[in-house]
Amino acid sequence: NRQWVLRQRPKGLIQPGDLELVDTAIPDLKETEVLVRTVYLSLDPTNRTWMNDSEGYLPPVGLGEVMRGLTLGVVEASRSSRFKAGDVVMPTSGGWADYAVVQESGLRPVHRAPGLPLTANMSVLGMTGLTAYFGVTDVLKAKEGETIVISAAAGAVGSIAGQIAKQRGCRVIGVAGGPQKCAWLTDELGFDAAIDYKNEDVGKALDRLAPDGVDLNFENVGGDIMIAVFNRLKVHGRMAVCGLVSSYNATKAPPSPNFARIITHRLHVQGFLVLDYAPRAREMVAEMGPWLADGRVKWKVHVDDGLEGAVGSLNRLFTGDHDGKLLVRVSEE
Ligand code: NDP
Protein backbone atom coordinates (compact mmCIF):
# COMPACT_ATOMS: atom_id res chain seq x y z
CA ASN A 1 0.00 0.00 0.00
CA ARG A 2 1.77 3.13 -1.24
CA GLN A 3 1.21 6.26 0.86
CA TRP A 4 2.50 9.82 0.51
CA VAL A 5 3.88 10.91 3.89
CA LEU A 6 4.68 14.53 4.83
CA ARG A 7 8.38 14.70 5.82
CA GLN A 8 9.00 18.45 6.07
CA ARG A 9 6.94 21.60 5.67
CA PRO A 10 7.40 23.00 2.14
CA LYS A 11 8.69 26.52 1.60
CA GLY A 12 7.05 27.80 -1.58
CA LEU A 13 6.18 25.20 -4.21
CA ILE A 14 6.58 21.62 -2.94
CA GLN A 15 10.12 20.34 -3.48
CA PRO A 16 11.50 16.79 -3.66
CA GLY A 17 11.94 15.51 -0.12
CA ASP A 18 8.99 17.45 1.34
CA LEU A 19 6.83 14.36 0.88
CA GLU A 20 7.91 10.73 0.55
CA LEU A 21 6.14 7.81 -1.11
CA VAL A 22 6.43 4.85 1.26
CA ASP A 23 5.17 1.29 0.97
CA THR A 24 3.35 -0.19 3.96
CA ALA A 25 1.50 -3.41 4.71
CA ILE A 26 -2.30 -3.31 4.93
CA PRO A 27 -3.36 -4.27 8.47
CA ASP A 28 -5.99 -6.98 9.10
CA LEU A 29 -9.51 -5.56 9.35
CA LYS A 30 -11.09 -5.30 12.78
CA GLU A 31 -14.83 -5.53 13.44
CA THR A 32 -16.73 -2.65 11.67
CA GLU A 33 -13.68 -1.72 9.56
CA VAL A 34 -13.69 -1.51 5.75
CA LEU A 35 -10.82 -1.72 3.25
CA VAL A 36 -11.23 0.91 0.54
CA ARG A 37 -9.23 0.94 -2.71
CA THR A 38 -8.72 4.52 -3.86
CA VAL A 39 -9.97 5.18 -7.37
CA TYR A 40 -9.83 8.99 -7.55
CA LEU A 41 -7.89 11.43 -5.39
CA SER A 42 -9.07 15.04 -5.53
CA LEU A 43 -6.27 17.60 -5.64
CA ASP A 44 -7.33 20.97 -4.29
CA PRO A 45 -5.40 24.20 -3.74
CA THR A 46 -6.18 23.97 -0.03
CA ASN A 47 -4.10 20.76 0.20
CA ARG A 48 -1.02 22.97 0.12
CA THR A 49 -2.28 25.00 3.11
CA TRP A 50 -2.67 21.80 5.17
CA MET A 51 1.09 21.26 4.85
CA ASN A 52 1.82 24.51 6.72
CA ASP A 53 2.10 24.68 10.49
CA SER A 54 -0.43 27.49 10.73
CA GLU A 55 -3.91 27.96 12.09
CA GLY A 56 -6.50 26.84 9.58
CA TYR A 57 -9.97 25.38 9.44
CA LEU A 58 -8.44 21.90 9.90
CA PRO A 59 -5.34 20.96 11.88
CA PRO A 60 -2.15 20.82 9.78
CA VAL A 61 -1.07 17.39 8.51
CA GLY A 62 1.56 16.24 11.01
CA LEU A 63 5.11 15.38 9.98
CA GLY A 64 5.24 11.62 9.38
CA GLU A 65 1.51 11.46 8.66
CA VAL A 66 -0.15 10.38 5.42
CA MET A 67 -1.11 13.45 3.37
CA ARG A 68 -4.81 14.22 3.75
CA GLY A 69 -7.02 14.38 0.64
CA LEU A 70 -10.56 13.83 -0.54
CA THR A 71 -10.91 10.41 -2.17
CA LEU A 72 -13.50 8.22 -3.84
CA GLY A 73 -12.97 4.49 -3.77
CA VAL A 74 -14.37 1.00 -3.98
CA VAL A 75 -14.83 -1.37 -1.03
CA GLU A 76 -12.43 -4.30 -1.42
CA ALA A 77 -13.14 -6.09 1.86
CA SER A 78 -15.51 -5.38 4.71
CA ARG A 79 -16.21 -6.35 8.30
CA SER A 80 -19.13 -3.94 8.39
CA SER A 81 -22.77 -4.90 7.91
CA ARG A 82 -23.32 -1.53 6.20
CA PHE A 83 -20.82 -1.87 3.34
CA LYS A 84 -20.00 -4.76 1.02
CA ALA A 85 -17.27 -5.40 -1.55
CA GLY A 86 -17.90 -3.39 -4.71
CA ASP A 87 -19.69 -0.47 -3.02
CA VAL A 88 -18.52 2.98 -4.13
CA VAL A 89 -17.73 5.16 -1.13
CA MET A 90 -16.12 8.38 0.04
CA PRO A 91 -14.18 8.37 3.31
CA THR A 92 -14.88 11.48 5.37
CA SER A 93 -11.14 11.78 5.94
CA GLY A 94 -9.21 10.31 3.02
CA GLY A 95 -5.53 10.33 2.19
CA TRP A 96 -2.96 10.10 -0.57
CA ALA A 97 -2.73 6.29 -0.58
CA ASP A 98 -3.63 3.23 -2.66
CA TYR A 99 -5.78 1.80 0.13
CA ALA A 100 -7.33 2.99 3.37
CA VAL A 101 -8.72 1.06 6.32
CA VAL A 102 -11.72 3.07 7.48
CA GLN A 103 -14.32 2.73 10.24
CA GLU A 104 -17.81 2.26 8.80
CA SER A 105 -18.86 5.50 10.55
CA GLY A 106 -16.24 7.35 8.49
CA LEU A 107 -17.66 6.30 5.12
CA ARG A 108 -20.38 7.79 2.94
CA PRO A 109 -22.00 5.79 0.14
CA VAL A 110 -21.69 7.41 -3.29
CA HIS A 111 -24.79 7.59 -5.47
CA ARG A 112 -23.89 7.69 -9.13
CA ALA A 113 -25.71 10.50 -10.93
CA PRO A 114 -27.73 9.02 -13.82
CA GLY A 115 -26.02 9.64 -17.15
CA LEU A 116 -22.91 11.21 -15.62
CA PRO A 117 -19.47 9.65 -15.06
CA LEU A 118 -18.24 8.96 -11.55
CA THR A 119 -15.86 11.92 -11.84
CA ALA A 120 -18.94 14.17 -11.51
CA ASN A 121 -19.13 13.14 -7.86
CA MET A 122 -15.59 14.48 -7.41
CA SER A 123 -16.23 17.75 -9.22
CA VAL A 124 -19.43 19.41 -10.38
CA LEU A 125 -21.67 17.39 -8.02
CA GLY A 126 -19.05 17.27 -5.26
CA MET A 127 -17.20 19.93 -3.26
CA THR A 128 -16.44 21.97 -6.39
CA GLY A 129 -20.08 22.33 -7.36
CA LEU A 130 -21.17 22.97 -3.78
CA THR A 131 -18.61 25.74 -3.40
CA ALA A 132 -19.61 27.42 -6.64
CA TYR A 133 -23.35 27.00 -6.09
CA PHE A 134 -23.61 28.24 -2.53
CA GLY A 135 -20.95 30.91 -3.07
CA VAL A 136 -23.10 32.47 -5.80
CA THR A 137 -26.59 31.78 -4.47
CA ASP A 138 -26.22 31.94 -0.70
CA VAL A 139 -23.11 33.98 0.10
CA LEU A 140 -23.35 36.53 -2.72
CA LYS A 141 -27.11 36.20 -3.26
CA ALA A 142 -26.49 37.09 -6.90
CA LYS A 143 -29.40 38.84 -8.59
CA GLU A 144 -30.47 39.52 -12.14
CA GLY A 145 -28.66 42.42 -13.77
CA GLU A 146 -25.73 42.49 -11.34
CA THR A 147 -22.17 42.51 -12.66
CA ILE A 148 -20.02 39.81 -11.07
CA VAL A 149 -16.25 39.35 -11.39
CA ILE A 150 -14.84 35.88 -10.76
CA SER A 151 -11.11 35.18 -10.43
CA ALA A 152 -9.50 31.83 -11.32
CA ALA A 153 -12.55 31.79 -13.58
CA ALA A 154 -11.39 28.96 -15.83
CA GLY A 155 -10.66 26.76 -12.83
CA ALA A 156 -12.91 24.11 -11.32
CA VAL A 157 -14.92 26.33 -8.95
CA GLY A 158 -14.71 29.55 -10.97
CA SER A 159 -16.00 28.07 -14.23
CA ILE A 160 -19.06 26.58 -12.53
CA ALA A 161 -19.66 29.72 -10.42
CA GLY A 162 -19.72 31.87 -13.56
CA GLN A 163 -22.26 29.64 -15.27
CA ILE A 164 -24.49 29.62 -12.18
CA ALA A 165 -24.30 33.42 -12.07
CA LYS A 166 -25.38 33.46 -15.74
CA GLN A 167 -28.38 31.31 -14.81
CA ARG A 168 -29.22 33.95 -12.18
CA GLY A 169 -29.17 36.63 -14.88
CA CYS A 170 -25.88 38.29 -13.96
CA ARG A 171 -23.38 39.88 -16.27
CA VAL A 172 -20.30 37.71 -15.74
CA ILE A 173 -16.67 38.76 -16.14
CA GLY A 174 -13.99 36.11 -15.59
CA VAL A 175 -10.30 36.61 -14.84
CA ALA A 176 -8.05 33.77 -16.05
CA GLY A 177 -4.51 33.12 -17.25
CA GLY A 178 -3.96 32.92 -21.01
CA PRO A 179 -5.94 33.39 -24.21
CA GLN A 180 -7.14 29.77 -24.46
CA LYS A 181 -8.72 29.76 -21.03
CA CYS A 182 -10.32 33.15 -21.69
CA ALA A 183 -11.71 31.99 -25.06
CA TRP A 184 -13.23 28.92 -23.37
CA LEU A 185 -15.05 31.19 -20.90
CA THR A 186 -16.58 33.48 -23.48
CA ASP A 187 -17.02 31.13 -26.46
CA GLU A 188 -18.21 27.97 -24.71
CA LEU A 189 -19.41 28.85 -21.22
CA GLY A 190 -21.26 32.05 -22.10
CA PHE A 191 -19.28 34.46 -19.90
CA ASP A 192 -19.89 38.04 -21.05
CA ALA A 193 -16.18 38.89 -20.93
CA ALA A 194 -12.86 37.45 -19.82
CA ILE A 195 -9.68 39.21 -18.72
CA ASP A 196 -6.36 37.49 -19.39
CA TYR A 197 -4.43 38.63 -16.32
CA LYS A 198 -1.17 37.29 -17.75
CA ASN A 199 -1.38 39.61 -20.75
CA GLU A 200 -3.42 42.60 -19.61
CA ASP A 201 -3.82 44.89 -16.64
CA VAL A 202 -6.89 43.68 -14.71
CA GLY A 203 -7.79 47.14 -13.36
CA LYS A 204 -7.67 48.79 -16.78
CA ALA A 205 -9.68 45.97 -18.33
CA LEU A 206 -12.33 46.32 -15.60
CA ASP A 207 -12.53 50.07 -16.19
CA ARG A 208 -13.28 49.30 -19.83
CA LEU A 209 -15.69 46.38 -19.22
CA ALA A 210 -17.47 47.72 -16.14
CA PRO A 211 -17.08 51.51 -16.17
CA ASP A 212 -19.80 51.92 -13.52
CA GLY A 213 -18.13 49.47 -11.17
CA VAL A 214 -18.70 45.93 -10.00
CA ASP A 215 -21.59 44.63 -7.87
CA LEU A 216 -20.18 41.24 -6.88
CA ASN A 217 -16.78 39.57 -6.52
CA PHE A 218 -16.37 35.79 -6.25
CA GLU A 219 -12.76 35.80 -5.12
CA ASN A 220 -10.53 32.76 -5.62
CA VAL A 221 -7.07 34.29 -6.02
CA GLY A 222 -6.26 37.23 -3.71
CA GLY A 223 -3.30 39.59 -4.11
CA ASP A 224 -3.20 42.13 -6.94
CA ILE A 225 -6.12 40.61 -8.85
CA MET A 226 -8.34 40.83 -5.78
CA ILE A 227 -7.24 44.40 -5.07
CA ALA A 228 -8.08 45.48 -8.63
CA VAL A 229 -11.63 44.09 -8.28
CA PHE A 230 -12.13 45.29 -4.68
CA ASN A 231 -11.19 48.83 -5.68
CA ARG A 232 -14.03 48.81 -8.22
CA LEU A 233 -16.79 47.42 -5.98
CA LYS A 234 -19.82 49.71 -5.99
CA VAL A 235 -21.58 51.12 -2.94
CA HIS A 236 -23.20 48.11 -1.17
CA GLY A 237 -21.08 45.78 -3.31
CA ARG A 238 -20.71 42.21 -2.07
CA MET A 239 -17.62 40.04 -1.98
CA ALA A 240 -17.41 36.29 -1.30
CA VAL A 241 -13.91 35.33 -0.26
CA CYS A 242 -13.71 31.72 -1.39
CA GLY A 243 -9.98 31.24 -1.78
CA LEU A 244 -6.64 33.06 -2.00
CA VAL A 245 -4.73 30.64 -4.19
CA SER A 246 -2.02 33.15 -5.11
CA SER A 247 -0.82 33.14 -1.50
CA TYR A 248 -0.81 29.40 -0.72
CA ASN A 249 2.87 29.04 -1.63
CA ALA A 250 3.85 32.54 -0.53
CA THR A 251 6.67 32.93 1.97
CA LYS A 252 5.69 36.52 2.82
CA ALA A 253 2.31 38.17 3.35
CA PRO A 254 0.58 39.14 0.08
CA PRO A 255 -0.63 42.73 -0.52
CA SER A 256 -4.08 43.51 0.88
CA PRO A 257 -6.82 45.91 -0.16
CA ASN A 258 -7.39 49.11 1.76
CA PHE A 259 -10.28 48.30 4.12
CA ALA A 260 -11.35 51.95 4.17
CA ARG A 261 -13.46 51.10 1.12
CA ILE A 262 -15.51 48.69 3.22
CA ILE A 263 -16.63 51.73 5.21
CA THR A 264 -16.93 54.29 2.46
CA HIS A 265 -18.78 51.92 0.12
CA ARG A 266 -20.65 49.96 2.84
CA LEU A 267 -19.32 46.69 1.37
CA HIS A 268 -20.39 43.26 2.50
CA VAL A 269 -17.33 40.98 2.61
CA GLN A 270 -17.88 37.37 3.63
CA GLY A 271 -15.59 34.37 3.77
CA PHE A 272 -17.14 30.93 3.56
CA LEU A 273 -16.26 27.24 3.76
CA VAL A 274 -17.91 24.60 1.65
CA LEU A 275 -17.90 22.23 4.63
CA ASP A 276 -20.73 24.27 6.16
CA TYR A 277 -22.87 23.64 3.09
CA ALA A 278 -22.40 19.85 2.83
CA PRO A 279 -25.77 19.18 4.56
CA ARG A 280 -27.49 21.25 1.83
CA ALA A 281 -26.09 19.27 -1.12
CA ARG A 282 -29.60 18.21 -2.20
CA GLU A 283 -30.59 21.80 -2.89
CA MET A 284 -27.67 22.11 -5.28
CA VAL A 285 -28.40 18.81 -7.02
CA ALA A 286 -32.06 19.75 -7.43
CA GLU A 287 -31.27 23.00 -9.23
CA MET A 288 -28.08 22.00 -11.04
CA GLY A 289 -29.29 18.56 -12.19
CA PRO A 290 -31.38 19.89 -15.09
CA TRP A 291 -28.66 22.39 -16.06
CA LEU A 292 -26.14 19.56 -16.31
CA ALA A 293 -28.58 17.29 -18.12
CA ASP A 294 -29.30 19.75 -20.91
CA GLY A 295 -25.79 21.21 -21.11
CA ARG A 296 -26.62 24.67 -19.76
CA VAL A 297 -23.79 24.15 -17.28
CA LYS A 298 -20.61 22.54 -18.63
CA TRP A 299 -17.75 21.06 -16.64
CA LYS A 300 -14.37 19.44 -17.22
CA VAL A 301 -12.04 17.22 -15.27
CA HIS A 302 -8.30 16.92 -15.74
CA VAL A 303 -7.26 13.40 -14.75
CA ASP A 304 -3.60 12.54 -14.15
CA ASP A 305 -2.81 8.84 -13.89
CA GLY A 306 -0.82 7.46 -10.97
CA LEU A 307 -0.50 8.16 -7.26
CA GLU A 308 3.28 8.39 -7.73
CA GLY A 309 2.86 11.70 -9.61
CA ALA A 310 0.54 13.34 -7.06
CA VAL A 311 3.02 15.98 -5.90
CA GLY A 312 3.76 17.16 -9.43
CA SER A 313 0.06 17.08 -10.17
CA LEU A 314 -0.75 19.27 -7.15
CA ASN A 315 1.75 21.88 -8.31
CA ARG A 316 -0.31 22.26 -11.52
CA LEU A 317 -2.89 24.16 -9.47
CA PHE A 318 -0.35 26.91 -8.83
CA THR A 319 0.99 27.14 -12.38
CA GLY A 320 -2.43 26.79 -14.03
CA ASP A 321 -1.17 23.84 -16.09
CA HIS A 322 -4.44 21.87 -15.89
CA ASP A 323 -7.73 21.97 -17.71
CA GLY A 324 -10.64 21.42 -15.32
CA LYS A 325 -11.09 19.92 -11.86
CA LEU A 326 -7.81 18.21 -11.04
CA LEU A 327 -8.00 14.53 -10.10
CA VAL A 328 -5.52 11.69 -9.84
CA ARG A 329 -6.69 8.27 -11.03
CA VAL A 330 -5.08 5.99 -8.46
CA SER A 331 -6.68 2.77 -9.78
CA GLU A 332 -9.26 1.77 -12.37
CA GLU A 333 -12.98 2.15 -11.60
P1 NDP B 1 -8.72 25.66 -9.76
O1 NDP B 1 -9.19 24.58 -10.67
O2 NDP B 1 -9.34 27.01 -9.92
O3 NDP B 1 -7.15 25.78 -9.88
C1 NDP B 1 -6.47 26.88 -9.34
C2 NDP B 1 -6.33 27.98 -10.42
O4 NDP B 1 -5.91 29.16 -9.79
C3 NDP B 1 -5.25 27.68 -11.44
O5 NDP B 1 -5.74 26.92 -12.52
C4 NDP B 1 -4.82 29.08 -11.88
O6 NDP B 1 -5.62 29.48 -12.99
C5 NDP B 1 -5.21 29.96 -10.69
N1 NDP B 1 -4.00 30.48 -10.03
C6 NDP B 1 -3.08 29.77 -9.34
N2 NDP B 1 -2.11 30.58 -8.87
C7 NDP B 1 -2.46 31.85 -9.28
C8 NDP B 1 -1.85 33.13 -9.11
N3 NDP B 1 -0.71 33.29 -8.44
N4 NDP B 1 -2.48 34.19 -9.67
C9 NDP B 1 -3.63 34.04 -10.36
N5 NDP B 1 -4.24 32.86 -10.55
C10 NDP B 1 -3.65 31.78 -10.02
O7 NDP B 1 -8.91 25.21 -8.27
P2 NDP B 1 -10.28 25.10 -7.46
O8 NDP B 1 -11.41 25.43 -8.34
O9 NDP B 1 -10.27 23.82 -6.75
O10 NDP B 1 -10.13 26.24 -6.36
C11 NDP B 1 -10.30 27.63 -6.71
C12 NDP B 1 -10.25 28.45 -5.42
O11 NDP B 1 -11.36 28.10 -4.61
C13 NDP B 1 -9.02 28.25 -4.59
O12 NDP B 1 -8.63 29.48 -4.01
C14 NDP B 1 -9.49 27.31 -3.49
O13 NDP B 1 -8.72 27.37 -2.33
C15 NDP B 1 -10.90 27.81 -3.31
N6 NDP B 1 -11.82 26.86 -2.70
C16 NDP B 1 -12.46 27.24 -1.55
C17 NDP B 1 -13.37 26.44 -0.95
C18 NDP B 1 -14.07 26.92 0.27
O14 NDP B 1 -14.74 26.13 0.94
N7 NDP B 1 -13.95 28.19 0.62
C19 NDP B 1 -13.66 25.09 -1.48
C20 NDP B 1 -12.98 24.79 -2.73
C21 NDP B 1 -12.08 25.66 -3.30
P3 NDP B 1 -4.99 30.37 -14.20
O15 NDP B 1 -4.45 29.40 -15.19
O16 NDP B 1 -6.17 31.13 -14.68
O17 NDP B 1 -3.92 31.21 -13.59
Automatic annotation (TrEMBL):
<dbReference type="Pfam" id="PF16884">
    <property type="entry name" value="ADH_N_2"/>
</dbReference>
<feature type="domain" description="Enoyl reductase (ER)">
    <location>
        <begin position="17"/>
        <end position="328"/>
    </location>
</feature>
<dbReference type="InterPro" id="IPR011032">
    <property type="entry name" value="GroES-like_sf"/>
</dbReference>
<dbReference type="InterPro" id="IPR041694">
    <property type="entry name" value="ADH_N_2"/>
</dbReference>
<dbReference type="InterPro" id="IPR013149">
    <property type="entry name" value="ADH-like_C"/>
</dbReference>
<dbReference type="InterPro" id="IPR020843">
    <property type="entry name" value="ER"/>
</dbReference>
<keyword id="KW-0560">Oxidoreductase</keyword>
<dbReference type="InterPro" id="IPR036291">
    <property type="entry name" value="NAD(P)-bd_dom_sf"/>
</dbReference>
<dbReference type="Pfam" id="PF00107">
    <property type="entry name" value="ADH_zinc_N"/>
</dbReference>
<dbReference type="InterPro" id="IPR045010">
    <property type="entry name" value="MDR_fam"/>
</dbReference>
<protein>
    <submittedName>
        <fullName>NADP-dependent oxidoreductase</fullName>
    </submittedName>
</protein>
